[in-house]
């Protein structure tokens, strides 16, 4: 076939076309992937080289490359938007599964926070303009412009299946995706080195980054002293570091949406999947949002969220103090995480058990968005798996046997179990059909569900409605206004349980995202792994793997919100 097809259960796929078009389609995809890989490798080389003083790559080189990439990507986006506006037939199909409203809403939210971060970054570098290169001030301004243009582009075009200039569009989308990944890597390196720099005072690590806005390094290229002494400068410096997690998530959200658009270039959709479909386009679920739950899940999740937020604040205050307070903060932090992860594991397991009694049909239709969601969930979990297994080996093989070691071991084991069972629950949920989608060979026996009290005569006029029991003491031949009792659907309690489970897991994943994203690093405050592996090796492991674990939490939130709607 010359194009990707997504036929519905009763639709016949479009007729196949000539073979050469299929070969060129693969060639166009290969060309765009090679472009993105080479651009990304160049960016990674400069970013990683600029992270250490011993390498003669300056932060201005990194900023210049990122600024150039963002300008080129913004120009291509403007070209794409103008072309599709002037030529509406260029987009004959729109994928209902792509760009759900909660994903686009999250993109806008993180984009707004990124704009605020750019304001803080511009204010910080402007505080000592005399000894700074102009590119350091130009970079956040260009990034703000790029974020505005890209957010609008993804809001209006995320569902497009474009059918003109296919290879140019694929290359443009892949270049923009590589730009977002380069921005993500620069932010991760900057934040990781900032965290390592704050911890290195108690360890034998002296290397630090040129990307982080440290006063002793701000004028590294020109050799002048650029110190951040004023109160306003300190506010700008601290403020934009606290906003880094939102910038990181914005880049990853945009990357996933751009990848789905790239997969949809030249895609043909059948009438059953064009404009609606399971998952992102299921409108009935949006009507019942926040209504069909037992409220146990959201209430318990909200309690854990508030408690976790309080423990995180206490941890941040006490962990940098004297040794006794640090020990107390770590015990409190690990105890909360063990309780939270244990509950999440049991709840995810119960959700998978409930699915054993669910009669909804499995959705096997082609869905690039769902395929990407599953791959990201499985791939991002590997980062946390790696940290957990390193911790298990350090605790088991290490000499100290104390309370903190036991808590660390329990935390690592539960982290692995929680990721496994939560992934199983989410992936199975994403492959379930919407409510009412039962296997075709199962007869529909509940045509009158949803009524509690009804007029008997009116009910008997409905076709295929079985005889209805009446209230005790009433006669079957009673007046028309007799009240009838219709039992609720058999699967109604299952749907409520699934909604409660997804809301509970969603709130727990948010608090487990907030803690590491905003600076909680028990990996370094707890010296078990540092003493076992050495600071340099352990810092490299955490700084490489932890960003994937942080991304996993936010991506799980997005997937669980979809599971909630589909339930």
SSE layout and pairing:
Elements: E1 5-6, H1 19-49, H2 59-86, E2 93-94, H3 101-126, H4 134-157, E3 160-161, H5 166-199, H6 231-242, H7 244-263, E4 268-269, H8 283-287, H9 296-318, H10 323-355, H11 368-397, H12 403-430, H13 456-460, H14 492-517, H15 522-525, H16 527-533, H17 535-566
Helix pairs in contact: 1-5, 2-4, 2-5, 3-4, 3-6, 3-7, 4-7, 5-7, 9-10, 9-14, 10-12, 10-14, 11-12, 11-16, 11-17, 14-17, 16-17
List keywords for this structure.
2 domains; 17 helices; 4 strands; 65% helix
What can you tell me about this protein's structure?
The protein is an all-alpha fold and 567 residues long. It has 2 domains: 27-202 and 228-264, no CATH class; 288-434 and 489-566, no CATH class. Helices cover 65% and strands 1% of the residues. The chain contains 17 helices and 4 strands. The chain has a two-stranded parallel sheet. It has a two-stranded antiparallel ribbon with strand order 2-3. Helix 3 (101-126) packs antiparallel against helix 4 and helix 10 (323-355) runs antiparallel to helix 14 (492-517). The longest helix is centred in the first third of the chain and has 34 residues, at 166-199. It is globular, with a radius of gyration of 27 Å. It starts with a strand and ends with a helix. The model is unreliable at 1-23, 202-224, 275-289 and 440-490 (pLDDT under 50).
